[in-house]
Amino acid sequence: MSVSAHNTIHVDGEWRSALSAATREILDPADAKPFAVVAEGGAEDADAAIAAARAAFDRGRWPTTPVAERAALLRRVAGLLRRDREELGLLESRDAGKTVEEGRADIDCVADAFTYFADLVAAEGPGRVVDAGTDTVHSVVVHEPVGVCALITPWNYPLLQASWKIAPALAAGNTFVIKPSEITPMTTIALIDLLVEAGLPAGVANIVTGPGHSVGARFAEHPEVDLVSFTGGLVSGTKVAQAAAVGVKKVALELGGKNPNVVFADACATDEGFDTAVDQALNAAFIHSGQVCSAGSRLIIEESVRERFVAELARRAAKIRLGRGTEDGVECGPLVSEQQREKTEGYVASALEEGAVLRTGGKRPEPSGIRPATGYFYEPTVLDHCHREMRVVREEVFGPVLTVETFRTEDEAVALANDTEYGLAGAVWTADAGRARRVAGRLRHGTVWINDFHPYLPQAEWGGFGKSGVGRELGPSGLAEYRETKHVYQNLDPKPVRWFAG
Ligand code: NAD
Fold first, then answer.
1. pLDDT of amino acid 124
2. What global pTM score does this model have?
3. Residue 496 to residues 100, 139, 292, 489, 493, Cα–Cα distance (Å)
4. Any idea which residues are catalytic in this one (predicted)?
5. Atom of ligand 1 nearest to the CA of 237
């Protein structure tokens, strides 16, 4: 990486420090020790970045660069990401606390997003010719870039979330400013360097590292910004939407989730089925210590198999190897911050007060050689006998906490699964194909998995119903977010219309 310490703000092709000269230490969540220092930008840095993106859009060549050239640049970026996979995967692990294996998988998915959007735009024709009902009119619908896009991203999948915005924004011909999470900015900074290396003109890609309340808020309210795409929590997302509404900007919101994992007894009828459903329930809830927007944090299980299933789930959850993400054999890293751990502890405490039964976890693990005492570790936790009135069932914990609710009928299962203000993702496990389709059709969630949990495809839309957000990322709709649609109507034989007599 060519970024020198503190110079992590990239405006109009130059790396610089914050105008205030403020800095921030970036901590490794595995030991709470700083491993990098970045610029702590403010509203004035946001203004400078937006001005550069505005000039690059209004007077630069990127918006009118032929689609084939834009696609070729995105493919070069994908190649550079693959070249730097090890370095970036490690950086993501240190920044966000995930295992290096997860970090590498993230980088593969980031490269896939760039390739997907390159292929998508390259395959498109020049526009959709519309039949105007007469051969004296040529009518065509075309797509154009929206303009200056302000992109705001969270800390759990820092580069992946950034790529789901940057790749389609660039494919469509926009310029952008991005603000990564203030606690995990490192890989997004590195990506800007790769965009420059791939040949992106100065001013098209700008980054301001800094906090949400100043840099992010300025992005959302700034009159020169045309579109705001935000991924993060419901509270900040609501503020972003309110600020953006004042300027009637386009807004896309990818917010939280409280995602049901519905398991019918018939899915557990064989030993293999039982093992698979338990294994995937663990994966759904505890990968990346549950800090996943689509985490299957609500197990909704048929009463007849509850005891056997939860006992096995708790037994296996207790065996998950917690430790520093860079250590061999570690299966799960720490939470991202002390704040996130304390939030998780608060939810577990409230659940126990409200009558939940702790089956495993519920505390900080003992330190060990792979688990420094200063790291933000928390044990995978299973809370049995939960119900809708509990805060832990209604609100997003964003930690390694799985709640268990039970049902007796299909209708009851569907009602429980839909009983959330969110609607990001959910799964149904059953051996009955008819039931699988019926339940999937009734779940009010943006992604529904049948006998699986967590996979996504860059070519399929991702996003939420209800308070999980507005708009979609990935797929053709993920590109459409970054475009204006224009109807060009050409009269080939103009004549007076004589609407007015004189
Ligand atoms: P967060 O809302 O605290 O922060 C997200 C980003 O918004 C950060 O960059 C932050 O600095 C910025 N921000 C905060 N306040 C702001 C404001 N007033 N104006 C503008 N920007 C502001 O979220 P987080 O804790 O970083 O991330 C976790 C959340 O993200 C969870 O709720 C999770 O479900 C959600 N998430 C959703 C998806 C999805 O695809 N739906 C994906 C990943 C994460």
1. 94
2. 0.97
3. 70, 19, 61, 17, 10
4. 254
5. 2
Tell me how far the alpha carbon of residue 470 lies from the centroid of ligand 1, in angstroms: 14
Distance, in Å, from the CA atom of 316 to the CA atom of 313, rounded to the nearest integer, reads 5
- 219 Cα–ligand 1 center, Å: 14
- Report whether residue 181 contacts ligand 1, using a CB cutoff of 6 Å: yes
Q: Read off the CATH number of the domain in which 236 is found.
A: 3.40.605.10
C-alpha distances (whole Å) from 283 to each of 276, 278, 360, 377, 380 are: 10, 9, 16, 18, 11
Residue 451: partners with Cβ closer than 8 Å, 6 or more residues away: 267, 276, 427, 428, 429, 430, 436
Residues 40 and 111 in one domain: yes
Residue 303 shares a structural domain with residue 211: no
Structural domain count of the chain: 2
Nearest residue to 31 (alpha-carbon basis) of 434, 310, 367: 367
Average pLDDT, the chain: 97
221 lines ligand 1 (CB under 6 A): no
pLDDT (tens digit, 9 = 90+) per residue, 115-163? 999 999 999 988 999 999 999 999 999 999 999 999 999 999 999 999 9
Residues 57 and 41 in one domain: yes
Ligand 1 nearest-atom number relative to CA 182: 11
Query: Is there a single domain that holds both residue 317 and residue 199?
Result: no
On whether residue 386 sits in a domain, the answer given is yes
What was the pLDDT predicted at 2?
Answer: 39
Tokens (6 digits) for 186:
């490192």
In a domain, 229, yes or no: yes
Same domain as 176, residue 50: yes
Does residue 3 register a pLDDT over 90?
no
Element (H, E) at 358: strand 357-360
Q: Tell me the percentage of the chain whose pLDDT exceeds 70.
A: 99
Q: Are residues 159 and 200 part of one domain?
A: yes
**Range of 481's domain?**
12-255+468-488
Whether residues 268 and 236 share a domain: the answer is no
Whether 461 is a known active-site residue: answer: no
Under 8 Å CB-to-CB from 85, ≥6 apart: which residues?
A: 104, 107, 108, 111
In a domain, 28, yes or no: yes
In a domain, 459, yes or no: no
Q: CATH number of the domain at 310, please.
A: 3.40.309.10
Measured CA to CA, the distance from residue 484 to residue 155 in angstroms comes to 29
- CB-based contacts of 464, cutoff 8 Å, min separation 6: 254, 255, 257, 422, 423, 424, 425, 445, 446
Bridge partners for 253 per DSSP? 230, 470
* 232 plus 307 within the same structural domain: no
* SS3 track for 90-102: HHHHHHHCCCHHH
